[in-house]
């Protein structure tokens, strides 16, 4: 049976799941999304993901046509219908179709889409050996232009940085903010380890407040690893003991080289190794 995709409360075969070419999600990137994962049939931190989705929508004056409770039930139903246990779940809410023109009042029917599919992960070797990343010349959006806390369908800022990374032979790229401080990667948050403590840019660095990031900060607390949300520069990364990225898709992935500079010994460090193992336990608990 073909994958069943939820569009506005109905299920369609993958090939037949469609929305209008007049949808402002397509025409203007006008909408919001979430990317989450389920482990053994349970969505990891679904409440946090739904809170972020509804806050993203609120921030762009988009009313999601179903309640959070309904959304949660529909996500679970989509997993069940597709008999998926370990899955990637993409929630999309578009502004809906209308006439041409930016005015959101020209639309009337926001579309809720739920895709549950198998997970495409970074190759296993990167988890063993670590990633090499480069700093993109494209800076993260100025928060006053488009808040990075909104997970909007307008991802060109990150896609341009991703292209720069790929052209340099790296599957992730580091993005700085308007002040030249470390913000995050194109689809992952960044952490360093220094003298036994973990450090990550604070929310006001112009980042997406990642749910995996918050899970790692919680884990560090429970493990007695000091954790700080601070301003970081590339210098802090270059002289760090360890570096790793977090995200719903990547989970926790080590970084061993930044801009051609090897981090410490170039091996995956003990705190990163510990957090990868503890995160695995957490998502399966
Ligand atoms: N920063 C950015 C810019 C992201 O897009 C993260 C950090 C990590 O956040 P979470 O909440 O996932 O820990 C993201 C997440 C996709 C996809 O399909 C993108 C993300 C997550 C899952 C899937 O492109 N981005």
Description:
This protein has two domains: 114 residues, Aminotransferase class 4, branched-chain amino acid transferase, N-terminal domain (D-amino Acid Aminotransferase, Chain A, domain 1, 2-Layer Sandwich); 161 residues, D-amino Acid Aminotransferase, Chain A, domain 2 (Alpha-Beta Barrel), CATH 3.20.10. The strands form two sheets. Strands 7, 8, 9, 10, 11, 12, 13, 14 and 15 form a nine-stranded mixed sheet that branches. It has a six-stranded antiparallel sheet with strand order 2-1-6-5-3-4. The model has no long low-confidence stretch (mean pLDDT 97). The protein has eight helices and 15 strands. By secondary structure, it is an alpha+beta fold. The longest helix is centred in the last third of the chain and has 15 residues. The chain binds 3-[O-phosphonopyridoxyl]--amino-benzoic acid. The site of 3-[O-phosphonopyridoxyl]--amino-benzoic acid has 16 residues, from helix 6 and strand 13.
Give a quick rundown of the structure.
Helix content is about 30%, strand content about 25%. It is an alpha+beta fold and about 280 residues long. A hairpin with a 2-residue loop joins strand 1 and strand 2 (about 10-15).
